[in-house]
Amino acid sequence: MRLLLLNPNTSAAMTAAIGAAAREVAAPGTEIVARQPSFGPASIEGHFDDAFGAAGVAEQARLAAGEGFDATVVACFGDPGVDAAREVMAGPVLGVAEAAFHAAAMLATGFSVVTTMTRTCVIAERLVQRYGFERVCRGIHGTDIPVLDLEAAGEALVDTLEAAARRALAADRSEAVVLGCAGMAGLAGTLQARLGVPVVDGVAAAVKFAEALAALGLKTPKTGDYASPRSKPWAGWAAGFGA
């Protein structure tokens, strides 16, 4: 199968790293194609960034819609643009936050989210509410690690994440940790070994769930909310997207 992995920010280094992490867990025969928007922020660390990230996901999904992808993963913990991508892609489209919440809830009675900037915690909180995980997500914890610092995650950064996760597990009385940034994808194994509890990376979870849904022959329904966008005039640089 062919899986489209969309990084909503414009960091080529992070796109490559997320793609590599996805390939590590993908089944034999799954081709991972990692892409990023042609415009937008280098990292997503707030509502303004998130809005442009969603537009970038919509752009890339529209461009890829006729390429025969079996499934799509949106690799940013805010799940920006997932609904837009579902309108234009035929196969299942998964956000890494939604996938991570489902995986953690299957493993533990309660989980904690450890993310990057504290200011983005509200975005994760709103997703928890939207997806219906209020009873099992026991806390969302920011570390104030800039997203782009994850591109060169040294020992000190991993130590910071470990310490934050230990505090979260104790304070929340939870039994699993969800990593709240796609840029943390390569750190899950190390942190799980140190913490002794499940550490869920949303990129890995989304890839495996996407493979399963595609293998079952399940697609995004086009008869209602996720019907293809209606044709209409568009203006400016996006004029070509209205056809």
TrEMBL record:
Species this protein is from: Rubrivivax gelatinosus (strain NBRC 100245 / IL144)
UniProt-listed Pfam families: Asp_Glu_race (PF01177)
Reactions accelerated catalytically: D-5-benzylhydantoin = L-5-benzylhydantoin; D-5-isobutylhydantoin = L-5-isobutylhydantoin; a D-5-monosubstituted hydantoin = a L-5-monosubstituted hydantoin
EC number of the protein: 5.1.99.5
The protein's enzyme class: isomerase
Gene assigned in the entry: hyuE
InterPro entries, alphabetized: Asp/Glu/hydantoin_racemase, Hydantoin_racemase-like, Iso_Racemase_Enz_sf
Protein name: Hydantoin racemase
Any one Gene Ontology molecular-function term assigned to this protein's record: amino-acid racemase activity
Family label: Belongs to the HyuE racemase family.
